[in-house]
Amino acid sequence: MSRPRLTIGTFGDVTTRVTPSGRFEARARYRDWDGRARQVAATGETAKAAERALKGKLAERSLFQPASSTLTPDSPFPALVAYWLEDIDLEARISKTTRNLYERNMRTLVLPAFESLTLREIGVARCDQFIKQLAKISYNRAKQARVVLRLALELAVRHEVLPRNPMDHVSRLYREPHIPDALTAPEVNVVRAAIAQWESAANHISGPKPDGQLGAIVEVMLGTSARIGEVLAIRRRDIDITSPVPSIRLAGTIVSRNGEPTFRQDHPKTARSSRVVALPTFTSDAVRRRLATAGSMGLDSLLFQSRDGTPLTTANVRRQLRQVLDGAGITGVTPHMFRRTVATAVNDNASIELAAELLGHTDTRVTVMHYIQRSELVNPATAALLDRAFAKDQD
């Protein structure tokens, strides 16, 4: 009689014998994840002890199987979320900041709607309705929820718990076309004047006096198109102001996580974001003034730092900029607006390709969609062309 066929992860009858040394040995056939059945043995002082040791060894072998073997279509959605987060940690392919963002979005946006459902109950219609309802509240929330829900369900598909990912058939998200905000040259000068007035401490009443860093930070953003985190991560070694063409190397960013001290990450947002940017005169002048004010500085010292020598947080700089400009009656200006302002100026005076290169983008479509303020003025050369094409005959 042929033995019954074992399924993946199961074992056959356990047999026990006494070894020449007098110990008991328990054996069983076990079908591994690769489909091959193998004999697995363990020994003990008694037959029961040998069987317990064998079962423990088989349990350890099951760890080599994908953890989805513990999930079924009837598993609750939170069980998949827990394994998905564990899988992210094991792969270690994304930054801790992104991982924490995924967990937050899953916990706050998705779980409230899916925590009472089993995996088999999560279909296209339910996912589509969820994303559409969330999009009515916020496009960005819907977009973030869509990402994490797709990733978690994709893991269930890869481990053959679900036959297909329902998120593959959810309708696309649409949003109204958005024209990026950018400052004009006169508006930039108004912002500069407001910051200079505040830094002069003319109306200072109490507390530490302004140290001049906010104005320099803005000049560096205007001269490099760098993100605020990249600017705050600039070290003394990244600055070259002695060459005929002064430059700054953007090769890091500032990271703040809940429960952890703010620190400098040794790479920016993307690999393309690492770049050396030539400085316009107004930026190199601001950097020289900052270096002179800071005094002795090691190569790894941050150009901008707190009075205690610790990194400045992006949140604090944003808050300080907002407070200073609010005091001058200027609203709506954010650090990222300077990045869009630079991109628009470079595009208007050169090309979209140069603007994308300066911003560290690999795709000019991103630059066009999110950073370039479209001008309504059509090139006036069209008037001359049409005059030549359709000029009236002279009487």
Across the major sheet, the strand order is 1-2-3
Largest sheet: number of strands, sense, barrel closure: 3 strands, antiparallel
Instruction: Give the number of DSSP strands.
Output: 8
In CATH, the architecture of the largest domain is Orthogonal Bundle
Helix content: 40-55%
What is the overall pLDDT average? 86
Give the CATH class of the largest domain: Mainly Alpha
The secondary-structure element order is: EEEHHHHHHHHEEEEEHHHHHH
- Overall geometry comes to elongated
Strand-residue proportion: 5-15%
Structural class: mainly alpha
How far is it from the N-terminal to the C-terminal residue, by CA?
112 Å
- Catalogue the unreliable spans: none
List the total number of helices.
14
Indicate the CATH topology of the largest domain: hpI Integrase, Chain A
Rg over CA atoms: 31 Å
CATH superfamily of the largest domain: Intergrase catalytic core
Total domain count? 3
Tell me what you see in this structure.
The protein is mostly helical. It folds into 3 domains: 15-65; 70-169, Tyrosine recombinase, N-terminal domain (DNA polymerase, domain 1, Orthogonal Bundle), CATH 1.10.150; 187-370, Intergrase catalytic core (hpI Integrase, Chain A), CATH 1.10.443. Helices cover 47% and strands 9% of the residues. It has 14 helices and 8 strands. The strands form 3 sheets. It has a 3-stranded antiparallel β-sheet with strand order 1-2-3. It has a 3-stranded antiparallel β-sheet with strand order 4-5-8, with no helix packed on it. The mean pLDDT is 86.
